[in-house]
Amino acid sequence: MPDASLVQRARRGDAAAFEALVRRYYRAAYSVALARLGTAMDAEDVCQDAFIRALERIEDPDPARFAAWLLQIVRNRAHNYRAYQRIREAKPLDEVSAAGVENPSRDAERSELRTALEAALGELSEVQREVVLLHDMEGWKHREIGDALGISEGMSRQHLMMARRALRERLGVRAVEEYGDE
Amino acid sequence: MNDDADRIDFRAIDPTGDGERFDATVAAIMAAAGPELADRRYSQDALGQLAGWWRPLLAAAAVTAIVAIATLAGVDPDGRETQSGTGIAEALGMSEQVATWVRSSEGPDPAELLLTLEDDR
Prior knowledge:
Chain A: It comes from Candidatus Kutchimonas denitrificans. Chain A: Residues 115-167 form the RNA polymerase sigma factor 70 region 4 type domain. With 182 residues, chain A is an all-alpha fold. Chain A has helices spanning 3-11, 15-37, 40-56, 66-87, 95-99, 104-121, 126-137, 142-149, 153-171. Chain A folds into two domains: 1-90, RNA polymerase sigma factor, region 2, helix turn helix motif (Rna Polymerase Sigma Factor, Chain: A), CATH 1.10.1740.10; 105-172, Orthogonal Bundle (Arc Repressor Mutant, subunit A). Chain A is built from nine helices and no strands. In chain A, helix 2 (15-37) crosses helix 3 and helix 4 (66-87) packs across helix 8. The longest helix of chain A is centred in the first third of the chain and has 23 residues, at 15-37. The model of chain A is unreliable at 93-101 and 178-182 (pLDDT under 50). Chain B has helices spanning 19-73, 88-91, 96-103, 110-120. Chain B has two domains: 13-56; 74-121, no CATH class. Chain B has 121 residues and is mostly helical. At the A-B interface, helix 2, helix 3, helix 5, helix 6 and helix 7 of A face helix 1 of B.
């Protein structure tokens, strides 16, 4: 179902439509939040907050441009969150993060790479992180990224190229996904 | 550079990679969104009911207005006789004598009242 229909239905309080929007855009929202905040826990907190905020203001956007509007909310919430963290201790982790279903062995397997990835991402500029995460993790096209971030397609390509080069230098062969095997 | 073939492997930090954990995250967002969604459904229902009542209410108001205008068109608001010789009191079915008492601030004396009541019969 197109975004516009889901947005119209969510405006009327349709929970299934709103859940579909959350599932569709959670990873994109998370990519932007992670790019801004640097840690998975903070990114999850901000994503949850951003989706609730988006629902409260869902009359505002052009329904067809929901994604770009949502990501702007994520950026604003991440900005506020970071400012809040500067003046206070980190707030307690959200219940979701703590209560999420954990698989210790799988987490252990991934933890080293996750740590390496987060550290490598930390070396990039904010916009490079946003572009590379939206493109390589979420699978967005440069046109969509440009639209959401307010940059040109060419600039999106440029940021992607720089980000990948920096990540590869940092991560080595672990960074290249073997898509051919999937 | 091939954009798709040269992707960085971000599966280790993909928040949807662990399906159960992602479902729990979505469930938490939906739980937090519950009150807002309920408010929206309630508003929608209330608007729907109002829309359902609005049309017949408007029709009834229109009929009332037409009847009132038609009635008042035949009488002078001050109670003076109009061209057709009818005042509000007469339009309401009062006898001419009673209407005169209504217009004046003085009440009738008992004899006049008796005579008028006799005439009305």
